[in-house]
């Protein structure tokens, strides 16, 4: 009897071992869902196209897809070499960036009340658009991985990278599209941030567009608050609180949640504290903050609303001033801008640009902001020229199409914007008092 029991035990053990072997063999040969690669990846015919397979991915399979990416091979190119200045290539500490893991843990910098908020279960998925030109591989990968690791799978329709003619050729695109949900487009020439974002938006298939810079790290539960506000009102354009990633140490530092975007008459962006009256009206620290202007690097917008408003002004070059143009346009044409304290995204702020502006940094910024002033600021553009006299006489291209767009959309005046959105705009600049001129514009 004992001999029979031993034989049965051995037989059962063999069967279990064979079953486990077969399971592992099948698992190793299982095909993962096909990923979009390169400029030809369509992602389906509408907001839901191509999403079903991804929604069926288990957590374990998702982790396998992330871990299967050859991170060491990707990061091996253009690494910092001992003896080189770590700031030369990217205007931040490349050595420190490469030392930090691509999936490092971050402190949750939200107010504790944010963790108690509930969001709809049927939030619309988004296409996340990230443009880059000669970006450090460590920061670009950390941006993408933070999105993949800290965003519910079903809310990411796709991540669209737009390589703005980087020196590496097709290599970045070829390697990064091995990550889940990542597609990549490559420009045939240098186009700049503005036209690159429009190309990414034109390729997007989700109902909602999310624009991110290529040196960011999204924090915990960053996306649902943004999508919730868009779902409730598609004319809102919403931005997270932008935390600071130190360019020297890459320490992640919480930013104040009592800030909004502001500017002076030279169209120089600045962060400004909410006034004591505004803070007193905010009885709940999780409430959205209305902002006259967004920083421009990170925001979420309904795709149909983005198209209806005229996308970006694609006659602007490279970078700079586009945040003023889109902010004025949103407010004056029937929308609103908000910063959401319960959404946090870190950003590497640099002291200078690591790339070249073909026409020079200053000339490019003047061209772009002059286009903004001429189209959207009405007679108040005179204050812009007084604050930035170098702009007078500088070419800014043909603006007839943007002027016609403003007429077609029946947008409000810049005086309406000043009265209703940004009455605090200081009428003092460069030692000159604009109060008398302002009075004449309004009353004369």
From TrEMBL:
Q: Give the signal sequence positions.
A: none
The cofactor required is: Mn(2+)
Keywords of the record, alphabetical order, are: Disulfide bond, Glycosyltransferase, Golgi apparatus, Lectin, Manganese, Membrane, Metal-binding, Signal-anchor, Transferase, Transmembrane, Transmembrane helix
Q: What class of enzyme is it?
A: transferase
Q: Name one GO molecular function term.
A: metal ion binding
Q: Which family does it belong to?
A: Belongs to the glycosyltransferase 2 family. GalNAc-T subfamily.
Q: What's a single GO CC term here?
A: Golgi membrane
Question: Which named protein is this?
Answer: polypeptide N-acetylgalactosaminyltransferase
What metabolic or biological pathway is this protein involved in? Protein modification; protein glycosylation
List each copy of the Glycosyltransferase 2-like domain by range.
127-309
Q: Which Pfam families does UniProt cross-reference here?
A: Glycos_transf_2 (PF00535)
UniProt catalytic activity: L-threonyl-[protein] + UDP-N-acetyl-alpha-D-galactosamine = a 3-O-[N-acetyl-alpha-D-galactosaminyl]-L-threonyl-[protein] + UDP + H(+); L-seryl-[protein] + UDP-N-acetyl-alpha-D-galactosamine = a 3-O-[N-acetyl-alpha-D-galactosaminyl]-L-seryl-[protein] + UDP + H(+)
For this protein, the Enzyme Commission number is 2.4.1.41
Major subcellular site: Golgi
Which GO BP terms, alphabetically?
protein O-linked glycosylation
Q: Provide the protein's localization.
A: Golgi apparatus membrane
- Has the keyword rRNA-binding been applied to this entry? no
Q: How does it sit in the membrane?
A: Single-pass type II membrane protein
């Amino acid at each position: 009897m004992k001999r029979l029991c031993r034989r049965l035990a051995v037989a059962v053990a063999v069967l279990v071992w064979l079953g486990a072997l077969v399971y592992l063999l099948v698992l190793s040969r299982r095909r993962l869902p096909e990923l979009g690669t390169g400029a030809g990846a369509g992602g389906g015919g509408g907001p839901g196209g191509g999403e079903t397979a991804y929604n069926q991915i288990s957590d374990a399979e998702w982790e396998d897809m992330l871990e299967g990416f050859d991170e060491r091979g990707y990061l091996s190119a253009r690494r910092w070499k001992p003896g080189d200045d770590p700031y030369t290539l990217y205007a931040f500490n490349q050595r420190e960036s490469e030392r930090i893991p691509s999936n490092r843990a971050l402190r949750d910098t939200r107010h504790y009340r944010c963790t108690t908020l509930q969001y709809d279960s049927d939030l619309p998925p988004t296409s996340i658009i990230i443009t880059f030109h000669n970006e450090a591989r460590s920061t670009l990968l950390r941006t993408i991985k933070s999105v993949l690791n800290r965003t519910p799978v079903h809310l990411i329709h796709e991540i669209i990278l737009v390589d703005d003619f980087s020196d590496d050729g097709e290599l970045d695109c070829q390697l990064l599209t091995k990550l889940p949900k990542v597609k990549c487009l490559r420009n045939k020439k240098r186009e700049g941030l503005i036209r690159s974002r429009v190309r990414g938006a034109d390729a997007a298939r989700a109902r909602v567009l999310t624009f991110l810079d290529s040196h960011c790290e999204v924090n915990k539960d960053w996306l649902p608050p943004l999508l919730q506000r868009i779902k409730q009102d598609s004319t809102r354009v919403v931005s997270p609180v932008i935390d600071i990633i130190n360019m020297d140490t890459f320490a992640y530092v919480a930013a104040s949640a009592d800030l909004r975007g502001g500017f002076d008459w030279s169209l120089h962006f600045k962060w400004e504290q909410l006034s004591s009256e505004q803070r007193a009206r905010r009885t709940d620290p999780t409430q959205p903050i209305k902002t006259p202007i967004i920083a421009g690097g990170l925001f979420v917008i309904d795709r149909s609303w983005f198209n209806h408003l005229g996308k970006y002004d694609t006659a602007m070059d490279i970078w700079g001033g586009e945040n003023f143009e889109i902010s004025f346009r949103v407010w004056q044409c029937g929308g609103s801008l908000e910063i959401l304290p319960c959404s946090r995204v870190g950003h590497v702020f640099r002291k200078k640009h690591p790339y070249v502006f073909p026409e020079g940094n200053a000339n490019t910024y003047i061209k772009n902001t002059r286009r903004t002033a001429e189209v959207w600021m009405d007679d108040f553009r005179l204050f812009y020229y007084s604050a930035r006299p170098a702009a007078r006489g500088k070419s800014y291209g043909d603006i007839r199409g943007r002027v016609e767009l403003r007429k077609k959309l029946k947008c409000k005046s810049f005086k309406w914007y000043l009265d209703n959105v940004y009455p605090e705009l200081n009428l003092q600049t460069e030692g000159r008092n604009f109060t008398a001129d302002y009075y004449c514009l309004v009353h004369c």
